[in-house]
């Protein structure tokens, strides 16, 4: 009997991990939550240091960018009644990042390191769910149709997924910023949006999308290409079908570092342009917004080429661990769901295996040492016959009542 084992032509392509879109959403939302919880304190400290250095920039009529390492969110500086809405304006004297983190936790409470987290989660989780789910779906479609070569599939899928996610989230980001900046009710926001669409058209809901895509699309293309290349190399070297947690963490950190370095000039331009759009459209500042190409020319002319790489170290410190936490958590839950689905499928196909164990006969010629139930069904059934044996003690036949001993 010969048992053949099915083999795949591409054993490491997509690693055979196929989960449902709902499971992809759960995996990505868990990763976004973990990343936000772990990385938000760094951004809170950064904003507090900026507010201490330039307090005028955080007065009414200005805005700042809040980023947890996954998504950037435009936040307005408002004079709210609640002290929690002015966490960025609290008095402080910090000497550096670690000194600020220790003093905030000691004098303001440990929860102050997560100030501004709820509005970030409102945007980060939906955006990340759309982004990662779209990436997996696009990668599967591109791979099945062979649109491009296998090495270019992550680049195309990552770029398309980022465009789709940013396009879906951009109107929600504008609505959230209006509510935060002007303290409007939902009915007032809807009325303001209707007036804006009548005056400027429906495309006004996506104002500011260009600066966002300017950095995020190249970042996604470089990141996914780097990550998938390292992932394929590790899998082909080790012969395994999936990465371990620390391997996914390291590959995500390296890929995020490389992508952050390559796209830093786009990040500088995008930050300045988004702040200007926020001051003009969302806060009420009448300052004339400069076009993207004019910002590039002014930075290069007035500040030099070095200015396009400003803030490299803080960006790497935030982006690298964010990418590592996000992708390792996502991969962990993706393989968790894949293993769970496989076990349920096995139980459905062989329900008795979950309750009974098949005995294995090691020293028998009737069955192989290890065989599946399907293999046993095709084996010849042995015929067991009883052989006559001569008893060691012959049995005396019972005497009949009619038989009498002869005298």
UniProtKB/TrEMBL annotation:
Solcar repeats lie at residues 19-141, 149-233, 243-336. GO terms for biological process: mitochondrial transmembrane transport. Pfam families: Mito_carr. Its main location: mitochondrion. It is a multi-pass membrane protein. Residues 386-407 are annotated as: Disordered. Keywords: Membrane, Mitochondrion, Mitochondrion inner membrane, Repeat, Transmembrane, Transmembrane helix, Transport. This is Gata Zinc finger domain-containing protein 1. It comes from Plakobranchus ocellatus.
């Amino acid at each position: 009997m010969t048992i053949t084992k099915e083999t795949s032509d591409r054993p490491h392509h997509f690693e055979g991990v196929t989960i449902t879109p709902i499971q992809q959403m759960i995996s990505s939302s868990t990763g976004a939550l973990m990343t936000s919880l772990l990385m938000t304190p760094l951004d809170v400290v950064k904003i507090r240091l900026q507010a201490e250095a330039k307090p005028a920039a955080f007065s009414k009529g200005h805005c700042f960018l809040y980023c947890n390492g996954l998504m950037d969110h435009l936040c307005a500086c408002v004079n709210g009644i609640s002290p929690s809405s002015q966490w960025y304006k609290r008095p402080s004297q910090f000497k550096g990042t670690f000194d600020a983190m220790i003093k905030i936790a000691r004098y303001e409470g440990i929860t102050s390191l997560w100030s501004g987290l709820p509005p970030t989660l409102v945007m980060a989780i939906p955006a990340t769910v759309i982004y990662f789910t779209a990436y997996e779906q696009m990668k599967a479609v591109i791979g099945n149709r062979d649109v491009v070569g296998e090495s270019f599939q992550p680049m195309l899928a990552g770029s398309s997924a980022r465009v789709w996610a940013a396009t879906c989230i951009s109107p929600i980001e504008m609505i959230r910023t209006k509510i935060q900046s002007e303290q409007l009710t939902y009915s007032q926001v809807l009325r303001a949006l209707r007036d804006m669409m009548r005056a400027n058209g429906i495309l006004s809901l996506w104002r500011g999308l260009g600066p966002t895509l300017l950095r995020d699309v190249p970042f996604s293309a470089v990141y996914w290409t780097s990550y998938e290349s390292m992932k394929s190399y590790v899998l082909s070297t080790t012969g395994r079908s999936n990465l371990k947690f620390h391997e996914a963490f390291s590959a995500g950190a390296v890929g995020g570092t490389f992508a952050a370095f390559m796209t830093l000039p786009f990040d500088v331009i995008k930050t300045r342009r988004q702040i200007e759009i926020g001051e003009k459209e969302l806060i009420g500042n009448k300052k004339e917004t400069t076009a993207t190409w004019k910002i590039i020319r002014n930075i290069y002319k007035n500040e030099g080429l070095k200015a396009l790489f400003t803030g490299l170290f803080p960006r790497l410190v935030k982006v690298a661990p964010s990418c590592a936490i996000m992708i390792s958590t996502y991969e962990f839950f993706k393989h968790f769901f894949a293993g769970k689905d496989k076990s349920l499928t096995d139980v459905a196909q062989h329900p008795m295996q979950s309750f009974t164990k098949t005995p294995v006969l090691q020293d028998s010629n009737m069955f192989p040492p290890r065989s599946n139930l399907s293999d046993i069904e095709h084996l010849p059934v042995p015929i067991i016959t009883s052989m006559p044996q001569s008893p060691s003690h012959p049995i005396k036949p019972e005497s009949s009542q009619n038989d009498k001993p002869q005298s």
